[in-house]
Amino acid sequence: MGRPAGSVSGAEHRRVLRAASGLTAQSPTPPPRRAAPLAAAALAAALFIGMDVTVKTLTGRFDALQLTFLRFASGSLFAVLLWAWFRTPMPPRASWPLHLLRSVLLLAALVAWFHSLKLLPLVQAVAVGYTAPIFISLLAMLVLGERPGRWIWAALLLGMLGCAVGLWPELSAQTDAGSAARVEGQLAALVSAVCYAGVVVLARHQAQRDALWTILLVQNLLPVAMLAGPVALTWQPMAWADLGPVLLIGLLATGGLMCITWAFTHVEASRAAPLEYTGLVWAAGLGWLLFGELPTAWSLGSAALIVAGALLLLRR
Q1: I need a labelling partner for 232 at 20 to 30 A (CA). Which of 71, 117, 154, 264 fits?
Q2: CB neighbours of 240 closer than 8 A, spacing ≥ 6?
Q3: How far apart, in Å, are the Cα atoms of 127 and each of 1, 116, 160, 270?
Q4: 8 Å CB contact between 74 and 110
Q5: What is the pTM of this model?
Q6: Collapsing DSSP states into helix, strand and coil, what is residue 160?
């Protein structure tokens, strides 16, 4: 998503898979070695935005449902290879209902995210996707019993204010035919962020039971199986030229996962997490170069407020 993952999308993997890995900060690495993990975190942000860009290039030909299926099908190729290499155990029978629930939430999150990419400028969609950490904190309080702090409420206020700033120009421009579509896109990105929050909270619950590579395998294969029937009803024919972008989506998502996983095992989370927001720079630059999207003052202000709110969570 942003992002929201994530998408994921960038929203999907930035937060979902980091939580799913059950990673905890290890002892600090010596100062000279900290540059590499930080660079890896920044590279992960770029790779995830690259995945979003690739998806956005396909939104004119395929609907969100088919794009979601293609994303999981592509991701499954890499997930199967990684799982076959590491051979981590499959989940016990008792944990499959939670895996199924998480897959349903992940499907909803991605369909909403890809729909938002079709309707919004890239940087605006990514900015709204960055509200996911705020919703994750709120759901963790309700579901996992984590203790709330004053920074959570401040982060929520800034995040919601940022969304309001982004929506205001569209709500006030009633004569603009495109405003309704952009409002729909922002609401879709927000729904995606909320669904991803549910995915991450469930992943935190399961992280002590299942290995990262097992979770990655299951959360790709289950959605493919669940979507195979519905997507066949509305399937749009694909050209051979589409194969490259579809494979690239899976490759970028997997590469981003590997980079962020390595970063969070070699440096404190509080140091690496802010680098996720360098994705906004990539989103603004690539949106301008590839799609002719120029961020407005309203969208930049919205992004600044949302990111400020998410960064406040590091003070918990």
Answers
A1: 117
A2: none
A3: 8, 12, 12, 20
A4: no
A5: 0.83
A6: helix
